[in-house]
Design a protein that fits this description.
Length: about 400
């Protein structure tokens, strides 16, 4: 599956510092990680710190799938509001999912500090706003619900938002959110894990996995095998190619990035923005004074149809940005389309689809893919060790 187009911003910004070989012989390992994006890199970090022997493979160059197209808004908020998620999954699962998302942001910062990654991580406030009066009751319900469950939120009126340069009627301000460069962090994590002994193989496509005598035998496109005790799939939206259960609806999303501004507008120095529209729009700044605007989601059909819409979506996003931030001169510099997905409850999938096989999945779908991956990173060890884990129950297959 082609996950993105055209040239996205992060790889061009970072260039390619590291490259890895493809497979050239049969190999054996304790754990095989399939997928060399941010999820696979985080999973590798967790396992390497536990002293595990790991091989990580990717069918393309590492970090060049969805990670290269991510806009890396790190929020504890999920694509379904808390008060609605409570109705769908119950209070315990919903509140814990929001709480775990908040903790994941701080856990991620600790990892970044540990490996000394220069991924431009910055804490921000999250502004969840509406531009239409009819959405104010919905937003007030969400504000009340978060307050009742102990989340640090503030209510903002039109005049508060005007000070940020935002043309909107009301908003919830959350004090915990962040931004970063996901491509840089994923690459830095892989370099760190390689130095700790992990073997990395890119341009290595796994075509089939056999199970014999408790072992997983992964067959590659060029006829080599990797034998492992456990396989962990960190393949994101491409997991639809290997899962029997339908767990996600694929979408196409669109992003534009501005030229670097001489001075970053005040509102973007301290906050990220997203709105109540469906599908929602979102806006953030980068470390080099650019602004990213994204949204305009469509049902995913195929990459060609997705990409054909890109010029139209560029204008759509530019038009809406100017409506929201009329005083900012947004001059487009990069644009791209990507594939992402939504689950029925906006929550991830962790663990074993088939309890009889040592194949595990960490699938952080939706707008919270990176924070979900951090949560999954801490859960998958229990999946490997067949231990009970609350998150493995919340986010199990077949739910």
């Amino acid at each position: 599956m082609k996950l993105r187009s055209t040239e996205t911003f992060w790889p061009l910004k970072n260039a390619m510092k590291n490259s890895y070989p493809s497979i050239s012989s049969d190999l054996t390992t304790a754990i095989l990680i399939i997928g060399g994006g941010i999820t696979g890199a985080l999973m590798a970090y967790k396992l390497i710190t536990e002293g595990k022997k790991i091989i990580l493979v990717d069918r393309r160059d590492v970090c060049n799938g969805s990670t290269a197209a991510s806009t890396a808004l790190l929020q504890y908020e999920i694509d379904i509001s808390l008060h609605e998620l409570i109705k769908i999954r119950g209070e315990e699962c919903a509140v814990n999912s929001y709480t775990n998302g908040k903790k994941a942001i701080f856990d991620l910062r600790t990892i970044i500090d540990t490996i000394k990654s220069d991924c431009q991580f910055e804490f921000k406030k999250s502004i969840y706003f509406t531009s239409v009066k009819k959405d104010i009751p919905f937003l007030r319900n969400e504000f009340k619900c978060r307050k009742e469950h102990g989340f640090d939120v503030n209510w903002l009126e039109r005049w508060d938002l005007e000070k940020m340069g935002l043309n909107a009627v009301a908003a919830i301000e959350s004090t915990t959110a962040a931004v970063m460069d996901p491509f840089r962090l994923a690459n830095d994590l892989l370099v760190y894990c390689q130095k700790k002994g992990m073997q990395i193989l890119d341009r290595t496509n796994i075509t089939a996995i056999q199970h014999q005598k408790g072992k997983c035998i992964a067959h590659t496109e060029n006829k080599f095998t990797i034998t492992a005790d456990h396989v962990i799939h960190c393949t994101g939206y491409e997991s639809t190619e290997t899962l029997a259960e339908k767990v996600v609806d694929l979408k196409s999303t669109y992003v534009i990035t501005s030229e670097s501004l001489p001075h970053l507008p005040a509102g973007f120095k301290n906050a990220i923005f997203w709105d109540t529209s469906s599908p929602y729009l979102y806006f953030r700044a980068t470390g080099d004074n650019r602004i990213i605007a994204g949204g305009g989601d469509e049902e995913f059909k195929d990459p060609k149809k997705r990409d054909k819409l890109l010029p139209k979506k560029e204008q759509f996003l530019l038009r809406h940005f100017h409506k929201k931030f009329p005083k900012i001169d947004f001059k487009p510099d990069y644009s791209w389309a990507g594939t992402f997905g939504e689950t029925k409850d906006a929550l991830p999938y962790f663990g074993k689809p088939n309890p009889e096989k040592n194949e595990h999945y960490v699938l952080g779908f939706g707008g919270n893919g990176i924070t979900f991956s951090v949560i999954g990173m801490n859960s998958i060890l229990d999946s490997i060790n067949n231990k009970k884990n609350q998150d493995l129950e919340y986010y199990r297959f077949g739910r």
